[in-house]
Each structure stands twice: as structure tokens, then as C-alpha cells.
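EI: anyone free to look at a 210-residue chain?
SC: sure, send it
EI:
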Amino acid sequence: MYDYKEISYIDCMCHRLHTVITAAWKDAKSVCGSLDHYYSRASALVSYCHHTVVLLDSLPITIKSGVVTSINVFTALKKDTLTEILEELNNLMILARVDFELNKKVLDLFQIFYQVFEKLQASDVPTVNLAVPLYYLLVSKLKSDSNCDAVNILQKKLVLYLDQKLFTSLKVYHWLGTLADHSFKTFAFLPRVSANDLRFASDLEEDIVK
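SC: here you go
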């Protein structure tokens, strides 16, 4: 009989990322009124679409509840199509409440997360080998500044919780990776062009040895 106390469990990266996004949104909304306003309006629209058969039949994807997919309705339909359907339902007001300019920036920000989720979920084999590289990919994509203060706040919260909720689970995999690839030990694969790049690499080297 197995002694389950001796077994090391590997966290699901998709689940970890979901907790990262949930925590980041909650924190960002608490300090940024425009994000709080946008999120509540977008969520209301998604909830309405989810319970409206006419809209669901017109969507190329299934709208699910939850933070990660709370803005999927905007990726599924063009605003013009939503306008046409909601006009027939005499409920254009719910669409007018959403800040579509901010929505586009949020969608652009989360595009990398969608790609990571698709990569992980599409695989029919274990993806533990992707965990460490995908973490660094996400952080590197989130380092670039946006011209939108609200998006910058959300980016910083995402990086914060990637470190707090995901990287802590990846330390052991990072060190295991050094056995196969020496660059994992020296962080040679990280860019070191700007002061931010150097600070990021230095912080990682400090964290990984703790």
C-alpha cells in the first residue's frame, strides 16, 4: 500500500493561474475605480448573455462564469453584432454601460493568458515541462508599460500574484530543470537589456536560493 504522505503532488498550473487572475482582479478593483466599474458592467453583460437563449445561440463559444472567461463575450462577438441583438431585445443600455475602449486593452493584456491556457488544456500529455518557461513568458509579457493607468495597475497585480501564488510552486521544478539545461541555473535565457530586466533577473536569483 502506498504511503500517501510520501507522495509529492504537482499543482495544476491552470488552477494556479486561475487563482492568480482572481486575486489580481480583486486587488486591482479595490484600488482602481475604473477597473471596478468596468468589471462589474462587463460581468453584468456576460451574465445577461449567459441567461439569454437568443444570444447564446448566436455565440461561437460557450460563455462560462468565472474571472478568466468573464470577458469572453467580447471575444466571441463583435460589438456591432451585440448591438443588433440587444436592440431587438430592447436592452441596449446594458451594452452602453461597458467601456469598450478599456475592454480592448484588457483583452489585449489577457491574450497571453488565453494562449497559455490553450497550450496547457490542448495537451493530452503531462505539461510539467512547460510550467517554468510559461511562468517566465507571462512575467516578461506583463513587464511592458501600458498607456492606460488602469491596465498598468492590473499588470502589476498580476505579476505580484504570479510570484506569490505560482512561482512558489515552481522553485523545485526550476532546480530540476538545471539538471537538463544549465541556462536554468544561470538565467541565461532572460533578457538583460534594461534596468528592469537586470532587477528582475537579480530578484529571481535571490528568490530561487531562498
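EI: Residues 63-71 have pLDDT under 50 and may be disordered.
SC: 👍
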